[in-house]
């Protein structure tokens, strides 16, 4: 299933009629960023077990993305 933006992807994920095995996302997306989508996935009781692969297109964005992921993981663990 494909989504045009992060918010649509989130709606697809939480729709119980869908069975999602893997999420492929970009870091930069309209309506809800890849980082925002990842935060929602990690905090959802059923979605948090779905593997997520994200694409980034520059070293600058890669570093920002990795820092954001570390922040999300830190919050999730505490």
UniProtKB/TrEMBL annotation:
Q: Which domain of life is it from?
A: Eukaryota
Q: Which GO terms describe its biological process?
A: cytokinin-activated signaling pathway; phosphorelay signal transduction system
InterPro entries, per database record = ARR-like, CheY-like_superfamily, Sig_transdc_resp-reg_receiver
Instruction: Give yes or no: UniProt keyword Nucleotide-binding.
Output: no
Q: Which SUPFAM superfamilies match?
A: CheY-like
Q: Which UniProt keywords apply?
A: Two-component regulatory system
Q: Identify the residues that the record assigns to the Response regulatory domain, covering every copy.
A: 1-78
Q: What is this protein called?
A: Response regulatory domain-containing protein
